[in-house]
Write a structure and sequence with these properties.
The protein has nine helices and ten strands. By secondary structure, the chain is of the alpha+beta class. The chain has three domains: about 1-115, Helix Hairpins, CATH 1.10.287; about 135-185, Roll (SH3 type barrels); about 190-270, Alpha-Beta Plaits (2-Layer Sandwich). Helix 7 (about 205-220) crosses helix 8 (about 255-270). The strands form three sheets. A five-stranded antiparallel beta sheet has the order 6-5-4-3-7. Strands 8-10-9 form a three-stranded antiparallel beta sheet, with helices on one face.
Length: about 300
Amino acid sequence: MNEIFKYILKYFNNIKDIINIHLFNIGNSSITLWTFLYFVILAWLLFFVTARLRKWIVYKVLSESKIELGVRLAVGTIIRYGVLVLGLIIVVQTVGINLSAITILAGALGIGIGFGLQNVTNNLVSGIIILFERPIKVGDRIQVGDVFGDVVSISMRSSMVVTNDNIAVIVPNSEFISSKVINWSFSDRNVRFTIPVGVAYKEDPENVKRILLEVAQNEEGVLEDPKPDVLFDGFGDSSINFSLRIWTSSYITTPGDLKSNIYFEILKKFRENNIEIPFPQRDLHFKNSEFQVSQTKNEKD
């Protein structure tokens, strides 16, 4: 029995010797294998607990309030990061590392990281601004730069926009703050489209207006309220110009389809009513002297 006890004691002493192996120093603090493992375990527990804390705050504590989900996510994320920073400081001190010993190192790393991660920091701050100010939200139809689609997710660093071609585009959050953003559904899903139409000068404007309104009213995607209307835009080089203005909520994601349907019907109605759609015409005038020179040259050839 004593032999077994001595063997077990020797075994644990060997383990103790292994985990107490010296790795490196931070200031006056000696970092051993046990210190490193202890720090990793506590840090993992801290990240796990703060992740659960964030979910609890967002989906339990604030779920009964009238605060939007995006704002709740932002609050939960900020609280989590705050607890993480405070917890990491406590963990570092718990494992026996003197924070004053790493102040200079942290300052130098902070400067390097600050220069190297400017864009990342910019996107993180922009993400916080977006989550609080709510210029865009999940489900909005937006256009930023050349990207046109629906917002499907907003994270701290970037947002995902899905286009009509079902292509997911990752847009850095800084683009929404520093660039011009068109939000097609900021207040509601109703959007107005303007469709330009030109007819020959011989046509009756009132008849053209009647036909355009008839086309708009017969299109299923066009809203009855607000009502479609027609504006007389002015006199062009070869046509009198109108603008058919229509409202829709069902074609906000595919405006090209609605315009195509409207143009098909306009062309059909114009042909049924013998309304002419003009094309640009140009009159060319030649001076006699230039014509004679050209004619003489051709005769010599």
